[in-house]
Design brief:
266 residues
């Protein structure tokens, strides 16, 4: 049997997704895409999971797509080759859609290279932490391709249009410090602290008021597409829904009793 390209584990309310092709810097294969779709679907439905972390096995996060696989498909008849390419994108976008709709916080834990689809994957997550020696590039232009994985949608929303064009059109490698400065990363940590700091962050999110966090995420995600009138109605709808939860009552009691809240996610 070939080793799974994606590993999934659930521990204490945290779902861990590991990209598992370290020998090829976790390059995105069709099997890995399918594995990620399955993993995100299962973790979304698992009521025990209250936070999801995506990380790479070995010393890198993801060095983009499987270039050897792209080249191999050139041996196909032209129409079949192009249809195969389109299907790769459609499947990858199913993964991104599932990540974005996930009603739980999704954290990217990044080390080493994050190139091409690896950067797209980070942009699709809610929060991102990386080692201070990691590096990034939207490298599609180097093989004559435009970007996928939602990079051209999310990047300008995070860094602004002009900066997004610079990253996409030049395809230059940039440092973790720059990625942090322009808003791609939330936190930079020393290389030997990534695992501990990722767990600390995931634990804080998993111990939070899950329903309220899901609603906050949904509101922020939809804010770019809604008018203020539409959005104000959604806020007025969601806040009372959160007020009806056990976590809201626990939060009030904990505040009045001057103790940490013990949220249960309901």
């Amino acid at each position: 049997m070939t080793e799974a390209h994606v590993l999934t584990e659930v521990r204490d309310g945290i779902g861990w997704i590991t990209l598992n092709r370290p020998a090829v810097l976790n390059a995105l294969s069709a099997q890995m895409t399918d594995g990620l779709i399955t993993a995100t679907r299962e973790l979304e439905r698992d009521a025990a999971v209250r936070c999801v972390v995506i990380r790479g096995a070995g010393t890198h996060f993801m060095a983009g797509g499987d270039i050897k696989g792209f080249h191999k498909s050139l041996t196909q008849e032209r129409e079949a080759h192009l249809a195969n390419f389109e299907m790769r994108v459609v499947r990858a976008h199913q993964l991104i859609y599932q990540l974005r709709r996930m009603p739980k916080p999704v954290v990217a834990s990044v080390q080493g290279a994050a190139a091409g689809f690896g950067l797209s994957l980070i942009l699709a997550c809610d929060l991102a932490m990386a080692t201070d020696d990691s590096f990034f590039t939207l490298a599609y232009r180097h093989i004559g391709l435009s970007a996928d994985g939602g990079a051209t949608y999310f990047l300008p929303r995070i860094v602004g249009e002009r900066r997004a064009l610079e990253i996409a059109l030049l395809g230059e490698r940039f440092t973790a410090q720059k990625a942090h400065e322009i808003g791609i990363l939330n936190w930079l940590v020393p290389k030997d602290k990534l695992a501990d700091e990722t767990l600390k962050l995931a634990r804080k999110l998993a111990d939070g008021p899950t329903f309220a966090l899901a609603k906050a995420k949904q509101l922020i995600r939809s804010s770019f597409d809604n008018s203020w009138d539409e959005h104000s109605h959604r806020e007025a709808e969601f806040l009372p829904a959160c007020a009806a939860t056990e976590d809201h009552l626990e939060g009030l009691n904990a505040f009045l009793e001057k103790r940490p809240a013990a949220f249960k996610g309901r």
